[in-house]
Amino acid sequence: MTPALWKSAANALLEANLQLTRGSFTLDVRLTLAPGEVLALLGPNGSGKSTVLDLLAGLAAPDVGTVTIDGAVLTAPGRFVAPERRAIGLLGQDALLFPHLSARANVAFALRVGDAQLNASLARKEADRWLDRVGLKDFGDSLPRALSGGQQQRVALARALAAGPRVLLLDEPMAALDAETAPFMRQLIREQLAETGTSAIIVTHDIVDAVVLANRVAVLHDGALIDQGTTAEVLAAPRNPFVAALAGVNLVVGTVQNGAIVAPDGRIFWVRPADAGDLDSTGPGAAVFRPASVVVHTEQPRHASPRNVWSARVTAIEPGSGGVRLRTSGDPEVIAELTPAAVADLGLQLGSTVWLSVKATEVSAYRR
Amino acid sequence: MIPRLLYLPASIGLALLVLPLAGLLLKVDWPGLPALLLSPEALQPLGLSLATASVSTVLCLLLGVPLAVVIARSQPRVAGLLRALVTVPLVLPPLVGGIALLSLLGRGGVLGNTLELAGLRIPFTTAAVVIAQTFVALPFLVIAVEGALRTAGVRYERVAATLGAGRGTVFARITLPLVAPGLLAGTVLSFARALGEFGATALFAGNQAGVTRTMPLAIYTAFNGSGVTTDQAVALSLLLIAVAVIILVLVGTRRASVLS
């Protein structure tokens, strides 16, 4: 990681430097957010993403660290501003609408705690305008239990924005929604963040969230930020298997040897000539190839024109975007994508031993 | 999908609960009932019971809800200790509670002496009735509300805080409404417990007509009274049952059952 990436933005809205140790888990994160920016925080389960949000929102305190917003210190040694005075909103996986209040009253609650002068009838009118913005004009009187999961989440978004947060934290807001509702919600969040000019940090598992919503991506792994950059940069050259899996590619992080990448388990990946030229000296490197480039055989291929051939066991067979995804053993595991018909033809089952091949021309390589 | 064998003990259990009350109804002197119920010996204790149990229930709410909140939001070990302390009066025979209250507030008691110097005498007053009832009823309220608070969790409260709501607002507008069913159940239970309180009252407050003779004490007095028939006791019991049933119906049995 180049030091330049860690430099705080000149006009940062939010700056955080957080350290926390809980048992064997250590979190050490520095991040900044520019005004109007949307940052996607990616990372596997247990990497500390939600902890980061709690620390920013003031729902937890770091062992050591600072959080400033617009220059105002929210968290620092000897100082801790309560969550209700931070103007940092939180929209989680569950809408958590107050069950005893109607959709309108839920939004009005946020409006009135933000502005004690606002009288009840004005708050109701303003709440109706917010409901209209999220496409729920006619649902003001509905109690949360009468709304679908997607509708509840839309009300929760309206409520969170109505409070006028300086930063909105989104913790996997589409995770609990079904496949039809999630894209709609994602677009709505994008629109509303843009319209209100709200800066946001979104924690997600879903690469689509990062692509659609975020200007910038930070990757959290084992409590540390291991990659950061514009969404396009990070996804184009994933430095970590988690991001690679998100981006839908196989990523082999290993060492450069003689123009090839050697995986931790010793497999050698020959790479396309254009990249091989960069691999003349040893050092850390990574190979990237698409699952669709992996050819699956039941016997060792005889006339192997592809230069990368190895055998592995099938560890999982799951539906993928382009057909069936076959996970195969190894360090790292390699994912092959093939049609359902091919899976049937080859008689593939869990635990089957297969031969895999990838043409060197399909493998790109990066120095790390 | 119930094993048939369970129906037998279930029926016996139900019979055990219902048959005594049915037996009571059979013993009622129906023609003489209006006179018995409208006599001062019935109306005075009823009025005293309703008044003291209402005051006790209000005290339970004022003291018990904050106590429940503190327990529910404490660290698990502290909460466990507090919960155990609150439960003790619940499992204690009320008579022991009465002796304990006398030891503290009675003549020669630690606080009793101090109060005596200030010119306050608690035992054998209506105030003692209220204290005894609150002592036995408070655990019901605390446990019901604390359970509801723990079930509700802190997630809504945290969201409310991130929306900018201060602690007082969150408590009044989010926390209390969320635990309303538990609060209602706890209130009904503590009122019923206060209404039925006998042992602690008898020892700590005595049995003075018009001052400390609540319904249960009146029933006991009528039942044990020399030369008096048990008709009065039966009539008063019927009245107490009627009051309890009316409360349950008013509150709605469905909502009261939230506690279980």
Automatic annotation (TrEMBL), chain A:
Residue ranges annotated for the Mop domain, each copy included: 303-367
GO MF terms, alphabetically ordered: ATP binding; ATP hydrolysis activity
Keywords: ATP-binding, Molybdenum, Nucleotide-binding, Transport
Alphabetical list of InterPro entries matching this protein: AAA+_ATPase, ABC_SmlMolc_Importer, ABC_transporter-like_ATP-bd, ABC_transporter-like_CS, Mo/tungstate-bd_C_term_dom, Mop_domain, P-loop_NTPase, Transp-assoc_OB_typ1
Keyword Nucleotide-binding: yes
Ranges of residues in domain ABC transporter: 8-247
Gene Ontology terms: biological process: molybdate ion transport
Superkingdom: Bacteria
Pfam families: ABC_tran (PF00005), TOBE (PF03459)
The protein's name in its UniProt record: ABC transporter ATP-binding protein
UniProtKB/TrEMBL annotation, chain B:
Parts of the chain that traverse the membrane: 5-26, 46-72, 84-106, 126-149, 170-192, 233-251
Superkingdom of origin organism: Bacteria
Keywords for the protein's UniProt record, in alphabetical order: Cell membrane, Membrane, Molybdenum, Transmembrane, Transmembrane helix, Transport
Topology relative to the membrane: Multi-pass membrane protein
Cellular compartment(s): Cell membrane
GO cellular component: plasma membrane
Ranges for domain ABC transmembrane type-1: 46-251
PROSITE patterns from the UniProt entry: ABC_TM1 (PS50928)
An MF annotation (GO) of this entry: molybdate ion transmembrane transporter activity
Job of this protein: Part of the binding-protein-dependent transport system for molybdenum; probably responsible for the translocation of the substrate across the membrane.
Family: Belongs to the binding-protein-dependent transport system permease family. CysTW subfamily.
Protein name in the entry: Molybdenum transport system permease
Encoding gene, per UniProt annotation: modB
